[in-house]
Automatic annotation (TrEMBL):
It comes from Rubinisphaera italica. It is an enzyme of class 2 (transferase). This is Histidine-specific methyltransferase EgtD. The keyword Methyltransferase applies. GO terms for biological process: methylation. InterPro entries: EgtD (IPR035094), EgtD_Methyltrsf_superfamily (IPR051128), MeTrfase_dom (IPR019257), MeTrfase_EgtD-like (IPR017804), SAM-dependent_MTases_sf (IPR029063). Its EC number is 2.1.1.44. The keyword Metal-binding does not apply. SUPFAM superfamilies: S-adenosyl-L-methionine-dependent methyltransferases (SSF53335). NCBIfam families: egtD_ergothio.
Length: 320
C-alpha cells in the first residue's frame, strides 16, 4: 500500500454543498445544474466511455498531440517540477507526458472523485516507480491548498488537459486561470489543452453520439440526485439534448422535460413545463487568438502551442 499524504474533503460537507447547488440551480430561471457533479463513480466511468467514442474526437486528438509532442513539452517544462493536474480522472493522457518528464518530477493529481483519484494514483505509482505521486482530493473550482507538499526549489506547473476549461463561462474561466497563476507563482507555468472551433456537425455529433453514452452521462446527474439527495426524478421523462450556440462559441447540454411534471428533492418540489430545460453543461470552443487573450487577462503569457494537422485541438504552454 502506498502511504499517501492526502488532503480529503468531508463527506457530509460534500453532500451539503451538492444539495445547496442543486436547489439553487433548479430555482434559477432558466434551470441549471453544475457540470462538476457529473463525476461520481458511475459518471466518471461513463466519461471514460465517452472518451473512446468515434464521434468524440477530443480525447483521441489530444492523445495524438501528446503522443507526438510530449517529449518536446517535457523538455520545455524542465527539471524539478511539481506537476499539478486539475481534474485528473483516470490520468490516461497524462501517462504520455509522465513517460517523458524528468525523474525529479513530483506528480500531483487533483480530482473531485475520490475513489477514481486514488485508484488511478495507485496504478500510476506502480507503473512509474521513479516518480513521486501525491494525489489531492479537492474541488479545483475552490482555491487549492498544497501546504508543505512541495519543496522550495521546485517549479509549480499546472497541467489542465481535456478542455475542461471549456466548462467555464469566460469570466469564471479568467477567475480560475487567475487562481492557477496565484497557485504557481512566481516562476510557475500552465500547460493547458483546449478545444478549437470547428465544423458545426463535427461539434454536435461529438455530444450526440449514436450509442447514447453522452445521454446516459447527462441523465446520470438526475440519478445521482435521486440517490444522494432523496430525489424522485423519472429518468424516462427527460431527454438529452446538445446544441452548438454560435454566438457564445459553445456546446450547451440540456435535459429536456418531456411533459409537465413535478419532482421532489428531499422536502423541496420543483415544477417543470413540457419542453422546459435544465442546462447541465457548457463546453466552450476557442480560436487560438481568443484563448491567448483570455489567458493574458489572468497574467499568463503564451510560450508554445502544439496542435494536430486538422487543428481540432490545441495544447499550449504559458508562463507568468
Ligand atoms: C471533460 C468538459 C472536456 O466538454 O467535452 C463530454 C465533458 N460532456 N461529453 C467536454 C463532456 C459531454 C467534456 N469535458
Amino acid at each position: 500500500m502506498t502511504d499517501y499524504n492526502t488532503i480529503t474533503l468531508q463527506d457530509s460537507a460534500e453532500t451539503t454543498e451538492f444539495y445547496a447547488d442543486v436547489i439553487s440551480g433548479l430555482n434559477s430561471k432558466p434551470k441549471t445544474l453544475p457540470s462538476k457533479y457529473f463525476y461520481d463513480e458511475q459518471g466518471s466511468m461513463l466519461f471514460d466511455q465517452i472518451c473512446d467514442l468515434d464521434e468524440y474526437y477530443i480525447t483521441r486528438t489530444e492523445s495524438q498531440i501528446m503522443d507526438r509532442y510530449a517529449h518536446d513539452m517535457a523538455r520545455t517544462l524542465g527539471e524539478k517540477i511539481a506537476l499539478i493536474e486539475l481534474g485528473s480522472g483516470s490520468s490516461r493522457k497524462t501517462r504520455l507526458l509522465l513517460e517523458e518528464v524528468a525523474e525529479s518530477t513530483v506528480y500531483m493529481p487533483v480530482d473531485i472523485s475520490r475513489e477514481h483519484l486514488f485508484k488511478s494514483a495507485e496504478q500510476l505509482a506502480f507503473d512509474f516507480p521513479d516518480l513521486s505521486i501525491k494525489p489531492i482530493h479537492a474541488d479545483f473550482t475552490q482555491p487549492i491548498k498544497l501546504d508543505n507538499q512541495i519543496e522550495d526549489d521546485y517549479r509549480k506547473v499546472v497541467y489542465f488537459p481535456g478542455s475542461t476549461i471549456g466548462n467555464f463561462e469566460p469570466e469564471q474561466a479568467v477567475q480560475l486561470l487567475s487562481n492557477i497563476s496565484n497557485l504557481v507563482d512566481p516562476d510557475g507555468g500552465l500547460l493547458i489543452g483546449y478545444d478549437l472551433i470547428k465544423d458545426l456537425n463535427i461539434l454536435e455529433d461529438a455530444y450526440n453520439d449514436s450509442a447514447g453514452v453522452t445521454a446516459a452521462f447527462n441523465k446520470n446527474l438526475l440519478h445521482r440526485i435521486n440517490q444522494e439527495l432523496d430525489g424522485n426524478f423519472d429518468l424516462d421523462a427527460f431527454e438529452h439534448q446538445a446544441i452548438f450556440n454560435p454566438e457564445e462559441h459553445r456546446i450547451e447540454m440540456h435535459l429536456i422535460s418531456l411533459k409537465k411534471q413535478s419532482v421532489n428533492i428531499g422536502e423541496s418540489t420543483f415544477h417543470f413545463e413540457k419542453q422546459e430545460s435544465i442546462c447541465t453543461e457548457y463546453s466552450h470552443k476557442y480560436s487560438m487568438d481568443s484563448f491567448r487573450e483570455m489567458a493574458l487577462k489572468a497574467g499568463f503569457h503564451e510560450d508554445r502551442c502544439w496542435t494536430d494537422p486538422n487543428q481540432y485541438f490545441a495544447v499550449c504552454n504559458y508562463r507568468l
